[in-house]
Design brief:
CATH architecture of the domain at 221-332 in chain A: 2-Layer Sandwich
Organism (chain B): Rubricoccus marinus
Helix content of chain B: 25-40%
Radius of gyration of chain A: 20 Å
Number of helices of chain A: 14
Strand content of chain B: 5-15%
Pfam families (chain B): Fer2 (PF00111), Fer2_2 (PF01799)
CATH superfamily of the domain at 221-332 in chain A: CO dehydrogenase flavoprotein, C-terminal domain
Bound molecules: flavin-adenine dinucleotide, iron/sulfur cluster, FE2/S2 (inorganic) cluster
Largest interface: A-B, 39 and 42 residues
Largest sheet of chain B: 5 strands, mixed
Oligomer: heterodimer
Distance between the termini of chain B: 42 Å
Number of domains of chain B: 2
CATH architecture of the largest domain in chain B: Orthogonal Bundle
GO molecular function, one term (chain B): metal ion binding
Number of strands of chain A: 12
Helix content of chain A: 25-40%
Shape of chain B: globular
Largest sheet of chain A: 5 strands, antiparallel
CATH topology of the largest domain in chain B: DNA polymerase, domain 1
Distance between the termini of chain A: 61 Å
Structural class of chain A: alpha+beta
CATH class of the largest domain in chain B: Mainly Alpha
Keywords (chain B): 2Fe-2S, Iron, Iron-sulfur, Metal-binding, Oxidoreductase
Strand order of the largest sheet of chain A: 4-5-8-6-7
CATH class of the domain at 221-332 in chain A: Alpha Beta
Protein name (chain B): Aldehyde dehydrogenase iron-sulfur subunit
């Protein structure tokens, strides 16, 4: 690790001010940041430890949903009664990620901003356009089993590794930010950027922005009857190859009134499949419809060799997740009768 | 590049208060091993992937290798040295011996701390991905599958997993042979 100075602000305003120092970076739980500092991928001059800020509670949001403080741990969020009942896919996504030790330490904001697990990015002896713009992308022709099939560019084919973010995208969450120019609210689906020709720019955050909270809209049938399906190389404790957050709400006649679909492991950002949702809304929840919706998502997908299998796997995982969500939706409709 | 400045930090480790000035790069694991001479916590991967460094921080298990020591100011740490002593082992330690829960022993301190935390988490009703709807309310109700999932952050290269599962079952269900079980000594020292 290169040397750095360290501060522990006690208010958001102090944290924002501390970020004015050149080379200053925020640290939440540190479970990604410390790892990357040790590898030399991150080399801050000044570390602003926000872990002690009073942003660690879950409360009601003004619109009737939930307001999740930036420092709520992944364990606390996944275990929250309201989250388990009303936003089930979020709980499942969190619990399928990392391990209890890591989830206890990891924060909500830190999880949103964790960096890609592209092995070339994580090893500074390799070139990498994201780490060092213009140096090249060895993943395109190298080992790319975990890499993107959607929304990638010739400059970078990395995926965003978070499970939690996939559910957040499907649930229409909002990111709340405070910076030197005041407060902003950013829809979750607009928060992460596709690589384009500047893969080093990963989000719409500015250098002195602090994430203060994430809000979820009021619960709905589709947020309650929802699941997270994660396909990985091992049954436990591994990042997703492909994952799907899906939720379904049925109307009185058993047709799909609302549906949510987002995918992980396929793109530079959590991939909200609005097109596929549009195909399904108002139609009957059949096996065929689910498969067609999944196929529509990968219609423009590209494989790079080792990750070609994702083009087949993704639609199947979508269909599986929708089927599971349908089961919950039917149970809910049955219970209501 | 700014020079490393030392930062003052106060931590309580196994009930004993310490006040140190540290380079902010020092991890909690290195603080324990190199500065406080508590070498029970092991360094395996140093990147959060093996669990050998697992300790309790304010009663919750974390990977000490990924925590900067200076960020633990005012917090309480429990290591394997705070769980039992060679003369008076904690029930979970006895159970590991009885059920062949360790072989080379390198991962064992982390496994024990995780086992202690697991029982506490189950008692608090924390869910796992196996069952988000209805988490168990005591470790005694945990299936083998649940214990494996909840212990998945602790890798054992020798493959002592079946013994570890048995040891946890034995203590959680009160079937462990020692009388210390009833005294509650398996609870984290900070609880
Ligand atoms: C072995 C291992 C396995 C893992 N497996 C999974 C997995 O399967 N699925 C998964 O989703 N994740 C997994 N993770 C990643 C883990 O979830 C993340 O490391 C964690 O969520 C990051 O949270 P943190 O609070 O520790 O962030 P930090 O490491 O502290 O920070 C991460 C980034 O967020 C920024 N940041 C932190 N807080 C704020 C804030 N309030 N405002 C603005 N910026 C901020 C930091 O500057 C930094 O760039 C794994 C990690 C490890 C080490
Ligand atoms: S895929 Fe992106 S992160 Fe990975 S080596 Fe290429 S440019 Fe770097
Ligand atoms: S040494 Fe900390 S997890 Fe491996
Ligand atoms: S006993 Fe040797 S690594 Fe677990």
């Amino acid at each position: 690790m290169t040397p750095f100075s360290y501060s522990r602000p006690t208010s958001v305003a102090d944290a924002v001010a501390a970020l004015a120092e050149p080379g200053a970076r925020l640290m939440g739980g540190g479970t990604n940041f410390v790892d990357l500092m040790r590898k030399g991928v991150e080399a801050p001059d000044h570390v602003v430890d926000v872990h002690g800020l009073p942003l660690g509670t879950i409360g009601e949001a003004s619109g009737g949903g939930l307001r999740i403080g930036a420092l709520v741990s992944n364990t606390a969020l996944a275990s929250d009664e309201r989250v388990r009942r009303d936003y089930r896919m979020l709980s499942e996504a969190l619990l399928s990620g990392a391990t209890q030790q890591l989830r206890n330490r990891a924060t909500t904001a830190g999880n949103v901003l964790q960096r890609t697990r592209c092995t070339y990015f994580m090893e500074p002896e390799y070139p990498c356009n994201k780490r060092e713009p213009g140096s090249g992308c060895p993943a395109k022709t190298g080992f790319n089993r975990i890499h993107a099939i959607l929304g990638e560019s010739e400059h970078c084919i990395a995926t965003h590794p978070s499970d939690m973010c996939v559910a957040m995208a499907a649930l229409d969450a909002t990111v709340h930010v405070t910076g030197s120019q005041g407060d902003r609210e950013i829809p979750f689906v607009d928060f992460h950027l596709l690589p384009g020709d500047s893969p080093e720019a990963e989000t719409v955050l500015r250098a002195d922005d602090v994430i203060t909270a994430i809000t979820l809209p009021e619960a709905s049938g589709a947020s309650r009857n929802s699941v997270y399906v994660k396909v990985r190389d091992r049954q436990s404790y591994a990042f997703a190859l492909v994952s799907v957050a899906a939720g379904i709400e049925l109307d009185a006649s058993g047709q799909i009134a609302d549906v949510r679909i987002a995918l992980g492991g396929v793109a530079h950002k959590p991939w909200r499949a609005s097109g596929a949702e549009g195909l399904l809304r108002g139609s009957a929840p059949t096996e065929d419809a689910f498969r067609e919706a999944g196929e529509a998502i990968v219609a423009d997908a590209n494989g790079y060799g080792h990750n070609d299998f994702k083009i087949t796997l993704a639609p199947r995982t979508v269909a599986l997740a929708l089927n599971k969500a349908l089961g919950l939706a039917q149970r809910a409709t049955g219970d209501a009768r | 590049m700014s020079d490393p400045r030392t930062v003052g930090v106060s931590v309580t480790v196994n009930g004993e208060a310490h006040r140190l000035d540290l380079d902010p790069r020092v991890s909690l694991l290195d603080l324990l091993r190199l500065h406080l001479d508590l070498t029970g916590s092991k360094k395996g991967c140093n990147q959060g992937a093996c669990g050998a460094c697992t300790v309790l921080l304010d009663g919750e298990r974390v990977n000490a290798c990924l925590v900067l020591a200076v960020s633990c100011d005012g917090q309480e740490v429990t290591t394997i040295e705070g769980i039992g002593t060679p003369e008076a082992l904690a029930p979970i330690q006895d159970a590991f011996i009885e059920h062949d829960g360790f072989q080379c022993g390198y991962c064992t301190p982390g496994q024990i701390l995780s086992s202690v935390a697991l029982m506490d988490e189950a008692a608090r009703g924390l869910p796992s991905v196996i069952d988000v709807d209805a988490p168990p309310c005591s470790a005694a109700e945990l299936s083998d599958e649940e214990i494996s999932e909840r212990m998945s952050g602790n890798i054992c290269r020798c493959g002592a997993y079946p013994g570890i599962r048995k040891a946890i079952h034995a203590v959680a269900s009160g079937a462990a042979s020692t009388s210390r079980v009833a005294s509650g000594a398996a609870q984290p020292a900070t609880a």
